[in-house]
Amino acid sequence: MNKFKSLMLSILFVSPMIQAQERTTETQKGHINQNKFRQLKDVLATPNNQHTASGAPGINYSQQKVDYEMSIVLDDDNQKITGNETITYHNNSDDTLKYLWVQLDQNVRAKDSKTPDITPSSKIPEKLNKRWYNAMFSKPFDGGFNIMSVKNIDGSDLSHTINQTMMRINLEKPLASGEKFEFKISWWYNINNHRINRGRSGYEHFSKDGNNNYVIAQFYPRLCVYDNVEGWQNDQFWGRSEFALEFGDFTVDITVPSDHIMQATGILKNEKEVLSKKQQKRLQEAKITYDKPVLIHTQEEAISAEKKRSNKTKTWRYYAENVRDYAFATSRKFIWDGMAVDINGRSVMAYSLYSKEANPLYGDHSTLATAQTLKTYSKYTFDYPYHKAVSVDGQMGMEYPQMAFNPGRPDLPDGGYSDRMKYLMIKVTIHEVGHNFFPMIVNSDERQWTWMDEGLNSYVEMLAELDYDPNFPLRRGLPKNIVSYMDGDQSRIAPIMSKGDNVYSFGNNAYGKPATALWILRETIMGPELFDHAFKTYSQRWMFKHPTPADFFRSMEDASAMDLDWFWRGWFYSTDVTDIGIKGVKKFIKEDAEKEVNFIEDTSEGLTFSSENAKKANSNFFYEITFDKPGGLVMPIIAEYTYKDGTKERKVYPAQIWRYNDKEITKVVKSDKEIVNITIDPDLETADVDTSNNSFPTKQDSKFDKFKNKIKG
């Protein structure tokens, strides 16, 4: 073969290979959609006939129902609870169930609990001290449920398996759709001293008088949620992420010492048996008093009771309809006051129980703060549907249907209280009472999505605090207060859409950041009118139901006609931060109004140049402003222009200004007055983590004119 033929063959055979390689290289230059405004359809669950695309419950939405009949005995001498319950489980799903899952939350304090084992230890101090020795060698608390029996309704034994904080009920016959199953459980457990061993319930001991205040919850085995989103929500309870529960009706008898004063979830059914005639009369007065609390059991009467210590008992009987959980508080030390609250023409009672150690702080503010909570939350969500809400001197922050255990006691030498203590107590009271709405009624899954109750509740809490006191010192929830967290060590920050058990900064992640996000949505992005309507729509759609995050996101968009996917993706699914700055400014001056000039005009089509008589333009100054965005979050640009005559003008460029380039954009501003300063986010509305680039000129820039140019004809 001659050289010419050899060359031609190499071209024929090699050239296509080279071209193919080049085409492959070109193909590899492609990318997936990373635009900040891409839709969330690849993230959110696919809509169906139970959780619809609009965010509303679908036509086939269903949920289980669980009813409880309980008899509880509190042993005040040994700090012990004994209980018997009959559970009726209604299978309203389309599925046939072969077993049921029951939560045994007290087992987090059992001797064989795994919770201590998953918590890394701190390093041994160089100098071993008594505190360290006590922590290492103290006798562990003997807590956890002691299950005495699990039986069928006919009294025969019912097969069951306990796995730490969960118990599986092994059904002899599968439970078909539409059927119900009844069974019984008997148990006892030692009550923890929550002031020593902590916890979401327990007792506080008063060594001076030998009495105990009991704030009791998670005291009974209770059913897990079963739905079409998760199946059985039966994650272990490790102590932090809270609860997923079904609604049902509770009939509960609680036996305590006869000199105790009690409140519990539900309507008291035997008032005449457990209250004196004097207490009954005062209670009736409280039910028609709307301006201030009425004392039903006074401090003097409580002090008298705590000195005598009756050895007799009495049983309080309650009935609660359509609640997801149950709690009670009882003590001979309790003072009891209450007042009526007008919720759109319907009377609801606000009560407080507190020991003398919490007075006068509780007497001055507890019931009033409870009443304000019911009013404000009803305004922004739905009318409070239950007959009462109770604030208890429980010296913790915890919530249950109609019951809240709150902190705060006088902290001054004269028995009074500081403003710091007052506002702390009011803040927590509003927050915990507010949980009656989220998640006690809008019944989200706390075990997985802590922010859906804590974050939403923390946001509405801010509104209630301002209603209670217009000068209330707001802390968590304001954009400026989340900056240090968002700008922190990224290795210790998780997206809001994270399970609470697995995040470092639980308070910021579950409470602060989501509350801030909603505050920004209302105040800066949507406006109060649109936001309030959408938030109320979501709340009313999911009353007494189980919403998911997607239901919230979709409802907010559906009811406002705003595409907020960019906001949810940035604030909830990422740890990006806000950082918007002014990169540079060019100033142009119109030199001769009589001449024909070319000037920049900002139109809906983008930046264009046109020529006309400059006199008609009515603009003597033009500014080419370049905004950059070192931060990952796309947010509106809030620009405040200060003119030479001292006046100011504010312009808000929607977040969508970043849709083509989320690194840097340019805007041209025309003005008949000279601009001497430009400031971004002057009121700190967007949680900007670096404000050093938010002004022009900066402190280093002596003159705006260094960027000046002249427009010539």
Can you give a write-up of this model?
- There is one protein chain.
- Strand 1 (65-75) and strand 2 form a beta hairpin.
- The model is unreliable at 2-18, 592-617 and 702-713 (pLDDT under 50).
- Among the domains are: 64-246, Immunoglobulin-like; 581-711, no CATH class.
- With 713 residues, it is α+β, with helices and mostly antiparallel strands.
- 24% of the residues lie in helices and 30% in strands.
- The strands form 8 sheets. It has a 7-stranded mixed sheet. The chain has a 6-stranded mixed sheet with strand order 16-19-20-21-23-22, with helices on both faces.
Separation, N- and C-terminal Cα atoms: 73 Å
The largest sheet is:
7 strands, mixed
Which runs of at least 5 residues are low in confidence (pLDDT < 50)?
2-18, 592-617, 702-713
Mean pLDDT: 90
Q: What is the tally of beta strands?
A: 33
What's the CATH class label of the domain at 64-246? Mainly Beta
Alpha-beta content class: alpha+beta
Query: Count of helical segments?
Result: 14
Strand order in the largest sheet: 4-7-2-1-13-17-15
The shape is globular
Percentage of helical residues?
10-25%
CATH topology of the domain at 64-246: Immunoglobulin-like
Radius of gyration over all CA atoms, rounded: 32 Å
In the CATH classification, which architecture of the domain at 64-246 applies? Sandwich
Strand content: 25-35%
Q: What's the short version?
A:
With 713 residues, the chain is α+β, with helices and mostly antiparallel strands. The protein is built from 14 helices and 33 strands.
